[in-house]
User: What shape does this take?
Amino acid sequence: MGVKHSAPTHLNLLDLPHDVLLLDLPHDVLLLLCNYLPLQDLPNLSRSCTHLNLLVGHHLDHLTSVKMISSWARFLSTNTGLLTQMESLVDHVRMKEDLMGRKDMYRLLHIRPDKMEEVRRVSCAEESVTFIGRNSPDKVEVRDELGRKVVRVDRVRWLQVEHRWSEVKLGRYRVSVRIRVEDNFTWPHTEHQPTVWTVGFPVEEGEEDIVVGVDRAWWRHLRKGMTLGGRVSVEKEGLGKWVRVVLPEVNVKRVGVVQVKVRDTVCNWWKGGLSFDFLELRRVG
Assistant: This one.
């Protein structure tokens, strides 16, 4: 796995002979072709033959660079207690030598720690996260699959979740909320009773906080496990039923507070069946 190789920056298929066979191509060209394959297709390629198996190994070794693993180690130093199930499987990795085979490589490449320039997570069970509308403190429970406390909202008439990150530096940021739809999920809204997601940030003249509403169709699609796009999107995780609700990016142009707020106060019918794990502020540029 420690074999060094150069990587061409581009590939023009018109330059190749028409009758060339895949395994006749130069090693560097084959490595470049691997870059065009989705991560989930690499295991199938590696099963094709010994030669391609070695090729995939070199490709994975190249992708899981020292720089990527250094980014992962920095992330772990501040977020160890709030990892997803996938992240927990590689929480032993601090250096390249800690990788225990290809499974660890695939997991890291799925997580993409090189995209985690700056991540600040906070547990929804912390006092700094305001929950208005949850029934009682006994709804803070330990989830075995996570090994930590989460907030479970079973039956409320209205709900508000809020948190503030202070001293946020200049840059582009993305806020997300990690939730899970439970078996007793009930969201009896009418078509015109939205759940409102807000991201507040230090605005300049002419700017406004990000405010987006989602309707009952959005929640029903979420319950069915459907892919959700739009301004409030949903990212599925590789393991378990937890998902990430991702809010629009904000551009922080001066140091200040970034605030996230989830409000469902228009519909006064009983609702519930949601668990909240953590809130995340991630720098994306």
